[in-house]
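Protocol step 4 of 5: obtain the predicted structure for the target chain.
Materials: sequence only (see below). No template structures provided, no constraints applied. The aim of this step is simply to have a reference model before the mutagenesis design in step 5. Sequence pasted as it appears in the construct record:
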Amino acid sequence: MALDREGYGPRPGQGDVDRLLEDARTLSPLGVERAAQGWAHHAGAGGHASWHEAERAALHVLETTQRVGEWDELRGRILGATERQGAMIAWRLEHGEVGHHAEGALLGAALALLAGDDLDRSHHRVLVAPMGDALPWLTGGVHE
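Step 4 output (structure tokens):
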């Protein structure tokens, strides 16, 4: 992904998944709340069917490319950072429904990024849109 308008972007050699995890670590409680609101807006009320379809498509990509183990490891890292003892402070502060929704947004974006170019653009957009409300680089700065 390219630099955004403010000149922010990945470090040389940094992949999208690593950038996502790094950015998730630096989100403030407000950023976590934005991700949760993004999940509620894009994947929650009325959007569950398209969200689940996109998840299935991404998981199918990982199955057919023998990368399910990578997803299991990445998902474990994310859950460790958002839920378990020693979780990131902002994520601990936004516990309950807000934290759960933000976590769903983060997991969806991670799944889409891990599936990469093997996942069609429409499913990719569905999975990154919620987290894109907190991290606009995921959606190219476009909010749907």
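Step 4 remarks: The CA atoms of residues 94 and 134 lie 14 Å apart. Residues 16-139 form one domain.
Proceed to step 5.
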